[in-house]
């Protein structure tokens, strides 16, 4: 009898899954309740029945669609009971709490930002496995990966108005504190792997300092100084206890994290589907490059433009490989990995030929001349075998006026 009930309900809920974006709130809520009923029936079945149900679920393919679900009253139909029922199934280390602040953020992300949520559901297929591997290495809660959605919408090139950069939005000073190089060649805040490692170090420090994941997450947003101030003013070491004494952005930050963690696991319960995207274009593999292999030759042999290869190497600022002790790990589109290894010998040979054909830059040195009374730029230029324009360029002079005892830089070959 239970098997018959389950089959009937499974058919019923399947019909709801293909409902249009104009479904009523009542219909959506009915779908959620039937999901709960199905789970209860599964729990009451024997182990073999559960195995069969799991097999059925595994065969269901993910449906991608650009359709936006419309929710009556602009709200996701979730209350505390449903939220706690859902989250009880998650093996999270960080507690998932429900209140009005969290509900407001669930409604915002699920309704107002639904198109973004749909993109995140798809892009997460690329970035979450990378995050999870690094979080696991640091023995950190895997659910911290959802913070990157709040920070950057999983965009390695994201830049804030204040100058924060990358998927984890590090400011320059904080990035350097956690050993992220920022120079004219690279900005490692944009590296998915390196910035995630830095974020793990930062969050672990904050957790060790405050002993609470909500407070550690809050300090990631506003800094430990503001958190200590909130603790002092509120007399509480609990996030909700110090809530009113935190910066406004930080007050919303933890509820946003909880809401995003919830929706990324249960968006399909409310008829929301992942957005269709070319995920393959984002997929990449990391390969070891030996000193001398030129970026543009690699791109050419892979049938890519420099811009296309740079797109999977966000930490690079230009089409140049900044070798460190003759080595560098480059990202290659997953679809071109075999081509890289098949052409690696030719890439090395052509790159070496280009290096040998490039003339060595002339060796130069800087000297300084002290201007004497009666000197002028033409006289000094003639003395050192250079032009007046070079003298002005080297010394950033806007006119030909010089003064006694003034120091002039001279570059000699």
Describe the structure.
The chain is mainly alpha-helical and 413 residues long. The protein folds into 4 domains: 1-23 and 34-61; 62-270, Orthogonal Bundle (Lysozyme), CATH 1.10.530.10; 283-357, no CATH class; 365-412, Membrane-bound Lytic Murein Transglycosylase D, Chain A (Roll), CATH 3.10.350.10. Helices cover 53% and strands 6% of the residues. It has 18 helices and 4 strands. It has helices at 2-17, 25-44, 47-59, 80-87, 100-112, 114-137, 147-152, 172-177, 192-210, 213-222, 224-234, 239-242, 248-266, 295-301, 306-311, 337-357, 377-384, 388-394; strands at 284-290, 327-333, 365-370, 407-412. It has a two-stranded antiparallel ribbon. A two-stranded antiparallel ribbon has the order 3-4. Helix 6 packs across helix 9. The longest helix has 24 residues, at 114-137. It is globular. The termini are far apart.
Comma- or semicolon-separated keywords:
413 residues; mainly alpha; Lysozyme; two-stranded antiparallel ribbon; globular
């Amino acid at each position: 009898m239970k098997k018959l009930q389950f089959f009937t309900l499974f058919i019923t809920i399947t019909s709801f899954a293909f409902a249009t974006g104009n479904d009523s709130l009542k219909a959506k809520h009915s779908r959620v309740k039937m999901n709960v009923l199905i789970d209860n029936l599964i729990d009451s079945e024997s182990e073999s029945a559960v195995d069969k149900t799991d097999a059925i679920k595994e065969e269901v393919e993910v449906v991608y669609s650009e359709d936006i679900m419309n929710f009556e009253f602009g709200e996701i139909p979730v209350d505390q009971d449903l939220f706690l029922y859902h989250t009880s199934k998650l093996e999270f280390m960080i507690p998932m709490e429900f209140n009005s602040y969290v509900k407001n953020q669930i409604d915002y992300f699920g309704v107002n930002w639904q198109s973004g949520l749909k993109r995140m559901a798809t892009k997460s297929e690329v970035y979450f496995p990378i995050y999870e591997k690094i979080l696991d290495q640091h023995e950190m809660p895997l659910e911290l990966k959802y913070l990157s959605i709040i920070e950057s919408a999983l965009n390695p090139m994201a830049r804030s108005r204040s100058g924060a950069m990358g998927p984890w939005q590090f400011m320059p000073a904080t990035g350097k504190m956690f050993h992220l190089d920022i120079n004219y060649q690279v900005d490692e805040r944009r590296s998915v792997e390196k910035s995630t490692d830095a974020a793990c170090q930062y969050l672990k420090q904050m957790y060790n300092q405050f002993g609470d994941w909500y407070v550690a997450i809050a300090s990631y947003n506003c800094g430990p100084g503001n958190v200590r101030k909130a603790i002092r003013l509120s007399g509480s070491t609990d996030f909700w206890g110090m809530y009113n004494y935190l910066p406004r952005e930080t007050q919303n930050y933890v509820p946003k994290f909880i809401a995003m963690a919830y929706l990324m696991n249960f968006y399909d319960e409310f008829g929301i589907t992942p957005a269709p995207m070319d995920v393959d274009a984002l997929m990449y593999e990391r390969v070891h490059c030996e000193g001398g292999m030129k970026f543009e030759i690699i791109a050419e042999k892979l049938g890519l433009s420099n811009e296309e290869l740079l797109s999977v190497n966000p930490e690079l600022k230009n089409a140049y490989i900044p070798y460190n002790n003759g080595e560098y790990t480059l990202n290659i589109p997953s679809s071109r990995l075999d081509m890289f290894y098949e052409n690696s010998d030719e890439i090395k040979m052509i790159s070496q030929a280009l290096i040998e054909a490039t003339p060595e830059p002339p060796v130069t040195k800087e000297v300084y001349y002290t201007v004497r009374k009666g000197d002028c730029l033409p006289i000094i230029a003639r003395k050192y075998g250079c032009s007046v324009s070079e003298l002005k360029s080297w010394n950033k002079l806007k006119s030909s006026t010089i003064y006694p005892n003034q120091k002039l830089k001279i570059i000699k070959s």
